[in-house]
Amino acid sequence: xxARSNLPTGTPVVGVLGAGQLARxxxxxxxxxxxxFRVFAQSESDSAALVCADTTVGELTDAAAVFxxxxxxxxxxxxxxxxxxATLEFLTQSGIKVYPTAAAIKFAADKSAMRxxxxxxxAPMPNWVTAQNLNQANQFAQEIGxxxxxxxxxxxxxxxxxxxxxDIAELNTLTFPVLLEQKVKFERELAVLIVxxxxxxxVVYPVVETVQQDGxxxxxxxxxxxxxxSRAIEAQQxxxxxxxxxxxxxxxxxxxxxTGSGPLLVNELAMxxxxxxxxxxxxxxxxQFENHxxxxxxxxxxxxxxxxxxxxxxxxxxxxHPDLHRGLLHCLARDSELKxxxxxKTVKPNRKVGHLNLTGSDLADLQNRISxxxxxxxxxxxx
Length: 383
Hints:
Helix content is 32%, strand content 25%. It has 12 helices and 17 strands. The strands form 3 sheets. Strands 9, 10, 11, 12, 13, 14, 15, 16 and 17 form a 9-stranded antiparallel β-sheet that branches. The chain has a 4-stranded parallel β-sheet with strand order 3-2-1-4, with helices on both faces. Strands 5-8-6-7 form a 4-stranded antiparallel β-sheet, sandwiched between helices. The longest helix has 18 residues.
């Protein structure tokens, strides 16, 4: 029975497992659509819990508590891929509508399962193996050569659970099983965001370039500069194919290596609104967050068309100043066109605590302005 006694007739209710910044930004779009929004948080201080009046606090491993929460909504969606598979399976078997489905989300939550599935689909990837022991790992290293990339098959997030392995000594430090991949020589990293609904409508956003530093995305450039139209179409078609084959409902982000003259290689998949799509809040006709909600509610999807020739997104990473709002006095006075999105998080070094968007027509100018603002907020510059 849905708890909706105070809601207008016909108001849909969306529940989100996880209450990080993605759920927080979904809540903004839900409000505009007139959708009731509820989050299942681990703490009252979680990013979305701070702004969502209808918050349940509990553990995602507590299937009974999650089920009780799910009974009050029309559809469940996710803030991240780390929701326990057993919890999602229990909800599905209990008749709860969950998007993306448990069958699909496992290919984002388990990197080894993702690689196996993409291999079946014929998607281009780096050479890889799931090594069950040191012997298998050493054999792969001898075949491919060092350095290698090692990834924890499950649990990794935002660059965590990923290591560069330089030699046999470092290979010996790994815990098995582990996903090993060839360290690909690439020119840049790209990302494609698509949104797909239960009745097979799909929209695809322009291909973007993601600028990485120490495994963390610092900027997103939309559209990816100097990307041939044929190459962009290739990337978009690959993402659409993967979404259809995996039966993804909602947002799918496909992260790619651009090898220049070689093929585009699939690096990672994410099945929820993604950092590479935050630019859409201010640079697209319909944001990824609104389209994700439209998809899980099976509403017609909105246009992904850009509203300006170029948009640059810059992640605000925690630095030496705990008071971000004090820094905004300078940044907003200096640049009145900045669009600010803060997550309500306590500042910690290198923690994503917000992002900035700028739209316009001069890529270099937008990048410089974004870089100045994020550097000032982190305390790397003081004027």
